[in-house]
């Protein structure tokens, strides 16, 4: 399936950071939907991969099946030692927390980085993360969710991807005012 994007257009665009999302505090078997939704949102809004602590091969397989159908190169990889991931990452790390600095204060610095590690917590966040991360960043200073915070940050930094098939996709949505249309899949009227 053709990707429909032109190389010349892409080269005129501003370079954007390559984003890895690190999800800590995953509770395999307890709330698989939340981490699954985080992975889906991270993929849909332009992250390259999600590292998962503790690892969950079932979740990684489910996301691989989504990538197989809808394209792109996103993957979920295990992060048995999340602190080492933060320390060794080749770029700034951004811990999403409602207690952090407003996104508007750090956006320009984040946008200039070639690579970003975005860290999303779970029900309880280890205290040392606030010190380990390069930035503690709030997406609004009210409590909400790791999925919302990650999606808004990515949309803000990378933009919302336009419709159209992704590389390697077996199917793609054809936007329509009503009903469901899928190119290469079984849409319903
Ligand atoms: N009570 C937890 C704590 O110790 O911070 C937060 C729990 S919250 C349900 C789960 C995750 O959502 C947080 O770790 C954070 O990554 C994200 N989050 C929630 N509200 C946020 C906000 N306003 N800005 C950025 N991230 C937020």
Overview of this protein structure:
The chain contains seven helices and eight strands, in the order H-E-H-E-H-E-H-E-H-E-H-E-H-E-E. It is an alpha/beta fold. The protein has one domain (15-183): SPOUT methyltransferase, trefoil knot domain (Alpha/beta knot, 3-Layer(aba) Sandwich). The strands form two sheets. Strands 3-2-1-5-4-6 form a six-stranded parallel sheet, sandwiched between helices. Strands 7-8 form a two-stranded antiparallel ribbon. The longest helix is centred in the middle third of the chain and has 14 residues, at 57-70. The protein starts with 6 loop residues before the first helix and ends in a 6-residue tail after the last strand. Residues 2-8 have low confidence and may be disordered. S-adenosylmethionine is lined by residues 96-98, 120-125, 138-140, 142-146, 149. Residues 96-98, 120-125, 138-140, 142-146, 149 line the site of S-adenosylmethionine.
List the helices and strands and how they pair.
Elements: H1 7-12, E1 18-23, H2 32-44, E2 49-52, H3 57-70, E3 75-78, H4 82-88, E4 93-102, H5 103-112, E5 115-120, H6 129-132, E6 135-138, H7 146-158, E7 172-173, E8 182-183
Helix pairs in contact: 2-7, 5-7
Strand order of the largest sheet: 3-2-1-5-4-6
Structural class label? alpha/beta
CATH architecture: 3-Layer(aba) Sandwich
- According to CATH, the homologous superfamily is SPOUT methyltransferase, trefoil knot domain
Q: What is the residue-mean pLDDT, rounded to a whole number?
A: 92
Describe the sheet with the most strands.
6 strands, parallel
- Which ligands appear in the coordinates? S-adenosylmethionine
SS strand fraction: 15-25%
CATH topology: Alpha/beta knot
Helix content: 25-40%
Measured distance between first and last alpha carbons: 22 Å
Radius of gyration over all CA atoms, rounded: 17 Å
- In total, how many beta strands? 8
Order of helices and strands: HEHEHEHEHEHEHEE
Query: What's the level 1 CATH class?
Result: Alpha Beta
Number of domains: 1
Rough outline: globular
């Amino acid at each position: 399936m053709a990707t429909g994007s032109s190389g010349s257009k892409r080269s005129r665009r501003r370079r954007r950071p390559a984003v890895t999302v690190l999800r800590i505090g995953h509770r395999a078997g307890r709330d698989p939907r939340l981490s699954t939704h985080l992975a889906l949102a991270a993929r849909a809004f332009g992250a390259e991969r999600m590292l998962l602590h503790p690892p969950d091969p079932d979740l990684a397989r489910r996301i691989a099946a989504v990538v197989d159908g809808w394209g792109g190169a996103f993957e979920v990889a295990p992060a048995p030692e999340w602190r080492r991931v933060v320390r060794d990452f080749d770029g700034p790390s951004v811990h999403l927390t409602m207690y952090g600095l407003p996104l508007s204060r750090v956006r320009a610095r984040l946008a200039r980085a070639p690579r970003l590690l975005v860290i999303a917590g779970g029900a309880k966040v280890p205290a040392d993360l606030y010190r380990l991360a390069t930035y503690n960043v709030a997406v609004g200073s009210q409590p909400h969710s790791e999925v919302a915070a990650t999606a808004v940050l990515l949309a803000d930094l990378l933009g919302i991807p336009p419709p159209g098939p992704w590389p390697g996709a077996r199917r793609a949505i054809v936007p329509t005012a009503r009903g469901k249309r899928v190119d290469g899949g079984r849409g319903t009227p």
